[in-house]
Amino acid sequence: MFLALDIGNTNITVGLFVMKDEKVLPEPLKVWRMSTVKERTSDEYATFLMDMFFYDGFDAKQVSNFAIASVVPSLNAVFEELIKKYFEKKTFFVNSKNCGGLIFAAGNSKETGADRIADIVAAYSVYDDSCVVIDFGTATTFDCINSEGIYIGGAIAPGPAILAQLLNLKIEQLPRVEMKKPLKSIGLTSIECMQSGLYFGYTGLVKELIARIKKEMKVKHIIATGGLAGFVFDEIEEIEIVLPYLTLAGIRIIWKKSNLNSRN
Fold first, then answer.
1. In 3D, which of 50, 62, 53, 61 has the Cα closest to residue 1?
2. In a shared domain, residues 65 and 182
3. In terms of Cα–Cα distance, which of 67, 154, 165, 161 is closest to 116?
4. Which of 116, 135, 143, 178 sits CB 3.0–4.6 Å from 226 for a disulfide?
5. How many domains does the structure of the chain reveal?
6. Which residues are CB-neighbours of 13 under 8 A, at least 6 positions away?
7. Is 259 helix (H, G, I), strand (E, B) or coil?
């Protein structure tokens, strides 16, 4: 079996893939999530991981290959140690060099997060045409690849949870609120007013960036992914489809391409 890990600032998404004849099947057999806690040790994370395997009836010893896309550098060594200690395997990390042959426009390769690389590689492998991938996570990222398969950059904006936290953090009299779609834009209570501003303001931000991107490049497909993608899907008609496991798919594809290249 093959294990792909997407280490984000809020959550770590773990995808278990079946391998058949040394090939990884495209759809994950099982997906788990655990909270990202920078202070946890490799042993603590191993306990969470082994429990997930055990309670879902999988044998962790059957995992023979590991690949990680991480935007939390302090946890890279932790998971590298975990995989070496508990599985006796090496870890493959997605980065600007291990990118499955992705071509970068000048100047942005080293600054691009591993999750964004995985997203765009997966999207282009599916559509083979110009794409915008919007990843709705802790931050909301917009990543663009043209019809020639060149990653040309994108945009980064605060995610919904960050916006809600900032309101409460900076304005003492405002309560904590759950960000959800309100019935109307004009709120009566402070909570309704905040939810209106957060939800409609956030969706407006996404729509505006999409509109501006479409003015600057020819866009064939707009794809959403990330834990909060479903939250705004119905509100933003420009989004063609939500692919919740796009990042995991990208990790798998990049590992596969790198593994094939290493054999040649």
1. 62
2. no
3. 154
4. 135
5. 2
6. 5, 6, 31, 32, 33, 245, 247, 248
7. helix
